[in-house]
Design goal:
single chain, alpha+beta, 10 helices, about 30% helix
Amino acid sequence: MATEITVPVLGESVTEGSIGEWLKQPGEAVAADEPIASLETDKVAVDVPSPIAGVLTELRAEVGDTVEVGAVIAVIEEGATASSAAKADTPAPAASAETPADADAPQTLSPAVRRAVLEHGVDPSTIKGTGKGGRITKEDVLEAAKKKGDPAPAAAPAAAPTAAAPAAAAGGARGEERVKMTRMRQTIAKRLKGAQEEAALLTTFNDVDMSAVIEARTKYKDLFAKKHDIRLGFMGFFAKAACLALKDVPSVNAYIEGDEIVYHDYVDISVAVSAPNGLVVPVIRDCQDKGFAQIEKDIADFGSRAKQGTLTMADMTGGTFTISNGGVFGSLMSTPIINPPQSAVLGLHRIEDRPVAINGQVEIRPMMYIALSYDHRLIDGREAVTALKIIKEAIEDPTRMLIDL
């Protein structure tokens, strides 16, 4: 019996997505609950599982197509088995610059992963995937290359030429690659440009002496990890410091809706997390009521699920304030853009030893530049500077966070 596979409900107010990748091809056997396709929405990639075991017989959409919730995208023959004849109808991809000849046949590699495999010269059959269902991610390939000691991308194998590949070896010709923007990347571009056009954006800066936080982490990290089974990071300190600032300066935690200002008596912090398809911002709910351990657990969970592609729309819905940590990538200073409809975002940067004047003496301290970008339509400069100053003072004297000062 043939069963039609439809686009599942993708989340509140989300009515459509686009086919990001087919994980199965016609003629291949499919197990019950096994993903057959990856759908891209405005915020997340969602796997479409098969409700039955059988054989995929038909695809009714191509990669890149926009499909609405409830639309039929594939057909599976229930109870059938993949015959050699069925498999023969779908030619196996030839070895090329996008399909490594030594890849293990059962593996499903996305185009980005296939390129990374070839660039770094790693064997995908030796990589343990950390993605959903054990799929290999680009980060898995990069980690494998790092362990192998590969400092730079390796040349593509000579035995796998392709007409579409840049012919750099022939006459020094320069190549180009044209790749359609993912739905998520299009949405990111649209939202960020919209924020610039609608909000009156301004950024205020300060610098923070990280000595006290570093000392606290060094002193308590082992006990903290033993008791809470999670590493004590810097984000927990900044999240709690932000809660203090937003309590004292409520406009930084507010929205503009039409001709009204919506104030919140809670702090839901959106944390910028890097995912394979772009930056996502899952939300730590009721951060004002959570301790360091729960905040760090939430952040670690978001990071893991972002890498696996299992974050949901619910994880990223809402948020009253955002923290973005460009320091993990080496950024010294930046002007972050707000995440609408939020009115402010805190940008963190790398820590580096710098000479500073302390009580009339020059000392070397671990310093970090911090930035607060805000919507000047709602937040006055005095309020923005005050909020950032509260964060600075809390980080430089963490006891303030314990006594709500």
